[in-house]
Design brief:
The chain is an alpha/beta fold. The chain has helices at 11-40, 49-73, 127-132; strands spanning 7-9, 75-77, 93-98, 104-110, 121-123, 140-143, 151-159. The protein is built from three helices and seven strands.
Length: 161
């Protein structure tokens, strides 16, 4: 079996992952078991689409739980007190200003397991996240984008929240 990649999590991400596993193990398992029970009551399970669907859902749920548990086991929680002030690292909140558009954005740098671009949580492995890692306030980083010239982002503030 392949070794799971170590995933880096902020304390908040670790708690969120634990809560999701707990929810799936208790509430979701019960809901799926209830659906299987109801489907059985429809009669002959050899031609019962509801039963097949519920069993497939159960298999997917168990696979998801196993995957999340594996991620949790391989997780290293970042101690935010060890985040070096003034240097971008996992757990840092980084404020950048796009040098072309003048637009300012704040990103939180997180491990890949927690990445959520919609919430401005960027993986340390993403193009922008990787370019910002280890940099300091005032640095300008250049990030390649799929189309057009590279974006130049100036780090205006770094905080460890």
């Amino acid at each position: 079996m392949a070794m799971a990649r170590e995933s880096l999590l902020t304390p908040e991400g670790y708690e969120k992952l634990k809560a999701e596993i707990e929810h799936l193990r208790t509430i979701k398992r019960r809901e799926v078991a209830e659906r299987i029970k109801e489907a059985r009551e429809f009669g002959d399970i050899s031609e019962n689409a509801e039963y097949d669907h519920a069993k497939n859902e159960q298999a997917m749920l168990e696979a998801r739980i196993a995957g999340l548990e594996e991620k949790l086991r391989g997780a290293t929680v970042i101690d935010e007190k060890q985040v070096e002030a003034g240097v971008v690292s996992i757990g840092s909140r980084v404020h950048v200003k796009d040098q072309k558009s003048g637009q300012s954005v704040a990103y939180q740098i997180v491990g890949s397991a927690e990445a959520d671009p919609a919430e401005n949580k960027l993986s340390n492995e993403s193009p922008v996240g990787a370019a910002l890692m280890g940099r300091k306030r005032g640095d300008v980083v250049s990030v390649a984008v799929p189309r057009g010239p590279a974006r130049k982002l100036k780090i205006t503030k770094i905080s460890a929240d």
